[in-house]
Amino acid sequence: MAQISQDLRHSVRVLLRNPGFTIVAVLTLALGIGACTSIFTVVNGVLLRPLPYPEPDRIARLFEISDKGNRMNVPQANFDDWKQQSRNFEQLAGYSGTMEATFLGAREPVRARTCMVSESFFPVLGATAQRGRIPLPTEHRAGAGAVAVVSHDFWQNALGSSADLEKVHLRYGNLSFTVVGVMPPGFSYPPGTQIWAPMEPFNPPNPSRSAHNWRVIGRLRPGVTPATAQAEVSAIARRIHEQYRDVTAVDAAVVPMHTEVTARVRPALLLLLGAVGALLLIACANVTNLQLAQATARERELAVRCALGASRWRLLRQSLTENALLAGAGAVCGVLLAIWGVDAMLALSPRLLPRGEEIHVDGWVLGFAVVVSMLTGVALGLAQAMRLRGEKLQDMLREGGRTLSGAARQRVVQGGLVVAQLGLTLVLLVGAGLLARSFWQTLQVDLGFEAGSQLAVEVLRPVPDTPEQLQQLARFHGSFQERIAALPGVTASGGINYLPLSGRGSNGRFLIEGGTSSGDYWPNFRVASPGYFAAMGIPLLSGRMFDSTDGPATVHVAVISKQVAERVWPGENPLGRRINYGNMDGEFESWSTIVGVVGDVRSDGPELGANGDIYLHYLQRPKTTASFTTVIRTSGDAQALTAAVRRLAQDLDPESSVSFRTLHGYFSGAMAERQFNLALVGVFGGTALLLAVMGIYGVMAYTVAQRTQEIGIRMALGALGGDVVRQVLREGGSLIVIGIVLGLAGAAALSRYIASLLFNTAPHDPWTFAAVAAAMALVALAACFIPARRATRVDPMVALRHE
Questions:
Q1: Under 8 Å between Cβ of 178 and 136
Q2: 3-state SS, residue 99
Q3: pLDDT band, very low/low/confident/very high, at 499 (cuts 50, 70, 90)
Q4: For residues 600 and 610, is the Cβ–Cβ distance under 8 A?
Q5: In the predicted model, is pLDDT for residue 645 greater than 70?
Q6: What is the DSSP secondary-structure string of 358-418?
Q7: Which long-range contacts (CB under 8 A, 24 or more apart) does 680-684 make?
Q8: Which of 30, 402, 433, 662 could form a disulfide with 768 if both were Cys (CB 3.0 to 4.6 A apart)?
Q9: Residues 6 or more apart from 414 whose CB is under 8 A from it?
């Protein structure tokens, strides 16, 4: 213990005696350890930590599989058969996708994300209410009163933490929901849900086996594996497919809940974890080079200690202690940096990372930082102690230990570290370059509309239950559209039920007059107003758009996109044909005449192709317009109209809920995942490049300083400054070339792991590899040029006198 205390005191004195080296080393290690710890914090919260439910390994998501291998939600009738025939699940539960709705009854009208759930939903998740209760089985029966369970945040923020839940009623249209329970903090499934209500009282049995409306989760019986459940559900799905003609699913899938929740972000997070691991290695190599640069100054001290009887183990222990202190200080600074980094990542992508509320620095993260710092300290200590290997005491004592062989060996080690740094940095930069090229490719995709500064105004109103409410909704939208079009500066405006890039929508097959249907082709169902196409910049290809002559009492009309025309009527003119899309809104008696064909729109983002759209007139099909988004194009700043538009909506209906966003904001949201990956890999690559440049600069500066006498003699014998510069650049250039060659080989071997994150970009894209290698070579050569230029200023007489 006394020896350890002595080692610590001596190490502290050594580090304080060299404050410049200590500060640079600690900051370098803090960058590496901090980056590793921040990404591990996210990986731990998202991928490693179990889901916050009892026995989460027994919870699974279930899907139907189409004949093309695509996952689909489940029709209610098929879901009922699964429940009756399955023996490997304790319970199966269905739930809807979340939708935003405006509720009254809170302290003020509030927009909330709502989910309809079946009776077994909360039992499958093993969830209970923190306050009150979950819905009773009798409240999941037809005719039962409307009840709801709310999230903890909603209870606090919208309901003011009301203690008497029985007096809290949330009104939505004609329905008044009694709040019977408050879920615990952090419970939010599906993600973002604020209100849960029983589905059975509001969804009568639907015999259709092609209406894929319900998401399904299940809890496996004890001892049953997902593979066993998969075999059973597949057999049930195949029997259903053989028994019923209108079933479009040919198989089913059982996916562990944790896998399903994290599937989208897992490749990117593992990529980032590998990137920060490389960054930590680069930081360690940089610190090792700094230590080697100081080796000459420490050799006489070590030689004297050896002469006085210190063993190699004693010197090794001292080296490990010094580097453990460095790594420990770096870890402390790194954890502080990681806390800031995690907050920055969550702020940069609040909706991209699932389970974001569970991402924080905890004991596991601190333990990870401690382990990383210990391993870093040991690695640095062993690297520093390696220079004692093979040294003779006499050589170390002779002129302070500065032997030609020792100096040459040190330069080789330093050069090797620089090569490793450059190689690892190039791998990171190639990854960032591929992501950047992929990002650029997505920006070049024609979305089919102009995602610019147009203002998108979403109005939420209650879903109509009666013919009178349906007429009121149509009158509201008609008046709202007219008044917006009359606002000063508005050049075009129009609305739609599901805006492209909003992440929402519906699709399905439709009937064609003459007794046929669209079969397995399910285009998007859209309800739009006349000015929508002009406001979005969607071109008319043939026929006409909706106009003022179309209304509730006129012939129902439809506008289709180019892809619908080509797939359903190839080589024919679709104008004048009649279609029925009643399965989407219940208007089974309404046939719509196609009056126009417009350009295709990529509704789900630039990476996915257009699925095709059928647009029906909003006044003729108002049932799906409770949520309606109006796009406003102006000659000036569209956002300046927000106050006026809000007043218009409230004048027409004080209880309407209005939100604003630009089309560019929707596009940025669709690109957020790519931006997030590119930003992080770019930051790590840039940091690695900075460390690598510092490393090669330090090595070349040290080499020039060590060769002052040689340079002075050469210049005294007539060597020109250009000769000296070329010699130094030649030595540095050889290291750069080797590092780049190794880095390109490593990038070529590893780039296939990034393929799933790329769009229209090959993992071995030669232009990216060449551009990154050339840019890195120029930056590294610039780092070599500074000490090379300094070498030309050596005064030969001063150098010779000094030596």
A1: no
A2: strand
A3: very high
A4: yes
A5: yes
A6: G-S--HHHHHHHHHHHHHHHHHHHHHHHGGGTT--HHHHHGGGG--HHHHHHHHHHHHHHH
A7: 680/272, 680/275, 680/345, 681/271, 681/272, 681/275, 681/428, 681/431, 681/432, 681/435, 682/432, 682/435, 682/436, 684/35, 684/272, 684/275, 684/276, 684/278, 684/279, 684/428, 684/432
A8: 433
A9: 289, 292, 293, 699, 702
Which has the closest alpha carbon to 275: 685, 740, 695, 742?
Answer: 685
- CA 46/CA 323 separation, integer angstroms: 33
φ, ψ of residue 161 in degrees (nearest 5):
55, 40
Angle, to 10 degrees, between the axis of helix 363-385 and the axis of helix 19-43? 140
Number of neighbours of residue 251 by Cβ within 10 angstroms: 17
CB-CB contact of 475 with 553 (8 Å): no
Distance (Å, whole) CA 250 – CA 243: 11
CA end-to-end distance (rounded Å), the chain? 45
Bridge partners (DSSP) listed for residue 579: 512, 592
Percent of the chain with pLDDT over 90: 31
Q: Which residues partner with 560 through β-bridges?
A: 597, 614
Residue 92: which pLDDT band, with cuts at 50, 70 and 90?
very high
By CB atoms closer than 10 A (0-12, 13-18, 19+), residue 407 is middle
Number of Cβ within a 10 Å radius of residue 466: 10
> Which pLDDT band, with edges at 50, 70 and 90, does 556 fall under?
very high
Please report, for the chain, the start and end positions of each structural domain, with discontinuous segments joined by +.
1-56+262-402, 68-247, 409-441+673-803, 462-655
Average pLDDT over residues 501-517: 84
Q: What is the largest CA-CA distance in the chain?
A: 107
Cβ-proximal residues to 303 (8 Å cutoff; 6+ apart), any chain:
393, 396, 397, 400, 401
- Collapsing DSSP states into helix, strand and coil, what is residue 158? coil
Query: Mean pLDDT over residues 730-748, rounded?
Result: 89
Q: Quote the DSSP letter at residue 520.
A: T
Say if CB 38 and CB 342 are below 8 A apart.
yes
List the structure tokens of 92.
């199966």
Q: How far apart, in whole angstroms, are the C-alpha atoms of residue 696 and residue 776?
A: 12
Q: How many residues does the chain have?
A: 803
Specify whether the CB–CB gap between 619 and 607 falls below 8 A: no
Distances (CA, A) of 347 to 453, 624, 641: 24, 34, 28
Average pLDDT on 733-747 reads 90
Q: In the prediction, which pLDDT does 400 show? A: 47
Which of 679, 677, 690, 675 lies closest to 279, judged by CA? 690
**Pairing relation of β-strands 657-662 and 592-598?**
unpaired
How do residues 357-403 score in pLDDT, each as one tens digit?
A: 778 887 888 888 888 888 877 777 776 666 555 444 445 545 444 45
- The residues near 782 (Cβ < 8 Å, ≥ 6 apart) are none
- Report the DSSP pairing between strands 578-580 and 511-512: antiparallel
Q: Which two tokens stand for residue 668?
A: 């940025």
- Which helix (H) or strand (E) segment holds residue 428: the answer is helix 404-443
**Chain Cα centroid distance, residue 573:** 43
Placement of tokens 């290698």 in the chain: 773
pTM to 2 decimals? 0.82
d(CA 102, CA 113): 9
Residue among 143, 27, 144, 102 nearest 135 (CA):
144
The candidate with the shortest Cα–Cα distance to 756, out of 271, 200, 128, is: 271
- Residue 477 to residue 796: CA distance in whole angstroms: 88
Q: Give residues with Cβ within 8 angstroms of 159, minimum separation 6.
A: 106, 107, 150, 168, 179
Q: 10 Å Cβ neighbour count for 758?
A: 18
